[in-house]
Design brief:
The protein is 43% helix and 9% strand. By secondary structure, the chain is mostly helical. The strands form 2 sheets. It has a 3-stranded antiparallel β-sheet with strand order 1-2-3. It has a two-stranded antiparallel ribbon with strand order 4-5. The N and C termini lie far apart (47 Å).
């Protein structure tokens, strides 16, 4: 925790002059990676304590970036609520919707041992590996969580695991401009690159 806090201090100092979206991206990369590594242990109390520490760092960041503004102004422009969470003090970039991930949002997940000789290359174990992938808890929220579970953790376009570190996009099978809606039946969760390839073919529909 001491090493991690020191890294976060340096990151907070380094993003003072950056756009808020880029600063949040750099912080999230460290937070999500650290939480993903330690979530297999009894880490919930530690995660909550780190969120309290991060709250102090956020306040210091805002005071340094806007020393002549009142706290209510800083709160209005940098703190808010995101869908699926009851927290009204999420540090975010309100122009883009990007937000800072909180450690306590990471679910504790014990490591699920792979049975002996259970190779991913064995076609007879395809269902086993798909069910294992579906049990993963990716760092997403809202409708993406429901789509992830419906697709059992796989991209329907490339048939590869969604949780591979690539950014995820929500695709409308019937575009909203053509009368499509936001219901789950009309949505698919795709890798960002798969989404771009799909639209490069002029919106070819997923089967």
């Amino acid at each position: 925790m001491k090493r991690y806090k020191q890294q976060m201090r340096m990151t907070w100092k380094g993003i003072i002059g950056m756009p808020t979206q880029e600063g949040i991206r750099q912080l999230n990369a460290k937070i999500i990676g650290w939480c993903n590594y330690y979530r297999i242990g009894a880490s919930k109390r530690t995660f909550s304590a780190l969120d309290q520490w991060m709250w102090i760092r956020q306040r210091r960041y805002l005071y340094r970036r806007h020393p002549n503004k009142h706290w209510w102004w800083r709160r209005k422009h940098y703190l808010g609520k995101i869908p699926g969470r009851e927290d009204y003090s999420v540090f975010m970039d309100k122009s883009t919707g990007g937000f800072l991930w909180k450690h306590a949002w990471t679910k504790i997940q014990r490591h699920w041992l792979v049975p002996k000789n259970a190779s991913p290359d064995n076609p007879e174990l395809r269902d086993y590996w798909r069910n294992r992938q579906a049990r993963k808890q990716p760092f997403i929220y809202g409708v993406k969580v429901n789509l992830y579970k419906r697709q059992k953790g796989y991209c329907p376009l490339c048939d590869q695991e969604l949780d591979n570190g690539e950014q995820l996009h929500v695709h409308h099978i019937q575009p909203k401009a053509e009368g499509g809606d936001n219901k789950l039946a009309n949505l698919r969760l795709l890798h960002a690159n798969c989404h771009r390839q799909l639209h490069s073919k002029k919106g070819k529909m997923l089967k």
